[in-house]
Specification:
280 residues; alpha/beta; Rossmann fold; 8-stranded mixed β-sheet; two-stranded antiparallel ribbon; 6 helices; 23% strand
Length: 280
């Protein structure tokens, strides 16, 4: 009996690494040497499935945070493959939330990380073909806009992604896309009503420039919620020294902190949106 138990445990453990959290690397192959970099990422795979839809997660200005890994675990529990991409460490960055707020050029370089994640997921036999989405948070959400919206209005530009979720995105980064926009793919935008770091008004102005397929974008605004409403356990506070693209000169100060009601509503909205767009 004991031998049978040992054999069973050995078989279970032998299969565990393929389904557990795993470190992987993505190759960003840009057109110039300064765009070529290998990015570390954490892979989360659901148990008991051979193939699943996938969601790549892109962090905000502070690097990979607990909110990103918490979402990855949730996605895994819902049956999705989740890939949390670290866009900073290979570039020698830790936190760009201060006065040296990321520029438009920085954002456009980082947009290649989204492309690299998509190519990497395409090559994995455990990812369902043509069933993948990306999520971008704050600065990462602003970068995501560069792939979710297109200046091409005569026909929808191909993105290679099935959907995107932009969480309190830095909509100021969308200014450079163009005066007339069209979504490249179905997109959910989640915002806090009291956000003064990436305020609603910037996103409303951006969405007002959409001239076709506006129905592909759904917005969710959570009452009484500030920036980082999903930072569970963190009371709302004011950060004086952070860069703020919504203020004159890009400086400075903003509120951020958790709102549990907003977090719960956001989780339900994301789950419903991904189920609709990825068929999970």
């Amino acid at each position: 009996m004991r031998l049978a138990v040992i054999i069973l445990l050995s078989l279970l453990l032998a299969g565990a690494p393929a389904l557990a959290q795993q470190s992987v690397r993505l190759k960003v192959d840009g057109a110039s040497p300064d765009l070529r970099v290998d990015l570390p990422a954490q892979l989360y795979r659901p148990a008991g499935t051979k193939q699943a839809p996938a969601v790549a997660i892109f962090h905000g200005c502070g690097g990979v945070g607990a909110n990103n890994t918490r979402m990855a675990q949730l996605l895994k529990s819902w049956g999705y493959v989740a890939l949390v991409v670290d866009s900073f460490s290979s570039r020698g960055l830790k936190d760009v939330c201060g006065r040296h707020w990321p520029s438009q050029a920085d954002a456009e370089k980082r947009a290649f990380d989204i492309d690299a994640a998509g190519l990497w997921l395409d090559r994995q036999d455990f990812v369902k073909p043509s069933q993948r989405a990306f999520m971008g948070y704050s600065y990462g959400g602003g970068v995501g806009l560069l792939r979710a919206l297109s200046a091409r209005t005569d026909a929808r530009a191909p993105s290679g992604w099935s959907a995107s979720v932009l969480v309190y995105p830095d909509c100021g980064l969308g200014e450079a896309i163009g005066p007339r926009l069209r979504p490249s793919l179905p997109t959910m935008i989640a915002m806090g009503a009291l956000d003064d770091w990436t305020p609603i008004r910037q996103c409303e102005a951006l969405l007002g420039r959409i001239v076709a397929d506006r129905e592909l974008v759904e917005t969710h605004v959570y009452p009484n919620a500030h920036h980082s409403f999903d930072a569970l356990g963190l009371p709302v506070r004011y950060l004086e020294g952070v860069g703020n693209r919504s203020k004159p000169g890009g400086c400075c100060g903003a509120h951020y902190g958790a709102n549990e009601a907003a977090w719960k509503a956001f989780v339900a909205d994301v789950k419903a949106f991904l189920a609709k767009e990825l068929g999970q």
